[in-house]
Amino acid sequence: MSTTTTVRITRRATFAAAHVLCRPEWSEARNQEVFGPCSSDHGHNYVVEVTVAGVVDPETGMVANLKDVDRVLRREFIDLVDHKHLNRDVECLSGIVPTAENIAFAAFTKLSPHFAPARLVRLRLTESENNAAEVICE
Description:
5-stranded mixed beta sheet, 3 helices
C-alpha cells in the first residue's frame, strides 16, 4: 500500500433520545401539517456511524485507533444526547428543529475537530428503520 493511500474506517454507536418536531412560532395545526405525528413528544433508538479517513500508520497499521474513535464519539456526542430530550437538554441543538438532518449536522460539527491526523469524512444518523441522514465531507 502506498504511503499516500487513504483508508476509511467506521465506528458505530447507539443512543436513545426524545424529541418533538415543531416550530414554536407556528400554530399547532401548521406543525401537525408539516411534521405529522412527529409534532408530538416521542423517542427513537438512534444509530450513529462515523467514518474517518487517513493514511495508515506503518507502525500501528491503523488510520486511527478505534478505541480512540469510540472514546471521542462518546465523549463529544453520545454522552450529551443519550437519554436526553433533544429540544430541551442538548446545547448544540438549541434553537433548531431536531430533525435527523439537523442532529447529523450538529454531531458532525461537534466531532469533526477531534480525529486528527485522520479526518471525519462521513456521519450517518439512523433515526428508524425507514429514516437516516448523512453528512459527507470529502
